[in-house]
Specification:
By secondary structure, the protein is mainly α. It has one domain. The chain has helices at about 25-45, 50-80, 80-85, 100-115, 120-145, 175-195, 195-200, 205-220, 240-265, and strands at about 5, 10-15, 20, 160, 170. A three-stranded mixed beta sheet has the order 1-4-5, with no helix packed on it. A two-stranded antiparallel ribbon has the order 2-3. A hairpin with a 7-residue loop joins strand 4 (about 160) and strand 5 (about 170). The longest helix has 27 residues, at about 50-80.
Length: about 270
C-alpha cells in the first residue's frame, strides 16, 4: 500500500493526579516558556532596557490573549453552529479547538496592553515576541501530527502518511510541512536578521516580516491540507485558513513599509 504507516503515539503525554496531560498542552507550555527565557536573554544581551517584571507581566498578558483569542476565533470561524447549539462547549478547552489567527490577535492585544503598562514601545515588544513564536508553532504542529488531526489531502507522494482518523488512505503530512515552514524556516530567517543592529533598530520590521512569512507559509500549506470537515472549501477552492491569512499578509506588508518609511524620516 502506498504511504507510510502512522506511528502509534498516544496524544496523552502523561497521567498526573488523575488528569491527562496531552502533548498539545505541553506544546503551548514549552513554547511560551522557551519564548520567555529567550526574550529575557535578548533583553540583557542587546541592552533593550526592559525589566524582568515587565517581561513577566508581558508573558502573562500574552498567554491569556492567546488562549482567549484562539478559542473565540475557533468558535466564530470554524465551528459556530456547534457552539450555538451547545454553548457550554465553548469552555471545554480540553476537547480541542484553537485558531492560530485568533491566538495571534489575542497575543497582539496582550502586547499592546503590556506596552502601555510598562511604557515601552509596542514594536520593541512585538519584535522580541515574533522572534520566538515559531518555537510554539513548530511544537504545536508536531502535536497536531501526534493528535492525528489537521492532516493533508490524499496523495501518492512517497512520504504520504496513512492517518487512522483520515481513513487510512495516504495523505500529505501537512502538519510536518507547517512545522518546517512556520517553525524552522521562520525561526531561522528572523533570528538571522535579528543579529544585525540595523534590523534591531528598525522597530516593526521583524514583526511585519513575521506576519508576512506566516501568512505565505500558511496559504501555501493550505493547498495540501484537508479543509476542516464542517467547513470544506469556501469558494474557488479557497479555505478558511487562506481567507484569514490574507489580512495577516496585508497588515504585515503595511507594518514593514511603515517601519522603513519612519526610518527614512529620521535620517
Amino acid at each position: 500500500m502506498v504511504g507510510l504507516a502512522y506511528p502509534d503515539i498516544s496524544p496523552v503525554a502523561v497521567h498526573l493526579f488523575g488528569f491527562e496531560v496531552r502533548w498539545y498542552s505541553l506544546a503551548y507550555l514549552f513554547g511560551i516558556l522557551a519564548a520567555w527565557y529567550l526574550m529575557g536573554r535578548d533583553i540583557k544581551k542587546y541592552k533593550l532596557g526592559i525589566e524582568k517584571k515587565a517581561l513577566d507581566d508581558t508573558i502573562f498578558n500574552v498567554t491569556i490573549g492567546i488562549i482567549l483569542g484562539g478559542r473565540i476565533f475557533y468558535v466564530l470561524f470554524y465551528n459556530f453552529s456547534l457552539f450555538l447549539s451547545h454553548p457550554l462547549e465553548i469552555f471545554a478547552l480540553w476537547h480541542g479547538g484553537m485558531s492560530f489567527h485568533g491566538g495571534l490577535v489575542g497575543a497582539i492585544v496582550g502586547l499592546f496592553i503590556s506596552s502601555k503598562q510598562i511604557k515601552c514601545s509596542f514594536f520593541k515588544l512585538s519584535d522580541l515576541a515574533a522572534l520566538y513564536t515559531p518555537i510554539g508553532l513548530f511544537l504545536g504542529r508536531l502535536a497536531n501530527f501526534v493528535n492525528d488531526e489537521l492532516w493533508g489531502r490524499t496523495t501518492d507522494v512517497a512520504w504520504a502518511v496513512r492517518f487512522p482518523n483520515g481513513g487510512f488512505v495516504p495523505r500529505h503530512p501537512s502538519q510536518i510541512y507547517e512545522a518546517l515552514l512556520e517553525g524552522v524556516m521562520m525561526f531561522a530567517v528572523l533570528n538571522f536578521l535579528w543579529r544585525y543592529e540595523v534590523v534591531r533598530q528598525k522597530q516593526g520590521v521583524v514583526s511585519g516580516l513575521f506576519l508576512v512569512l506566516y501568512a505565505l507559509s500558511r496559504m501555501f500549506v493550505e493547498c495540501f491540507r484537508q479543509p476542516d470537515q464542517q467547513l470544506g472549501f469556501l469558494f474557488l477552492k479557497i479555505t478558511m485558513g487562506q481567507c484569514l491569512s490574507l489580512p495577516v499578509l496585508i497588515v504585515g506588508i503595511l507594518i514593514m513599509l511603515w517601519a522603513f518609511k519612519k526610518e527614512k524620516q529620521t535620517l
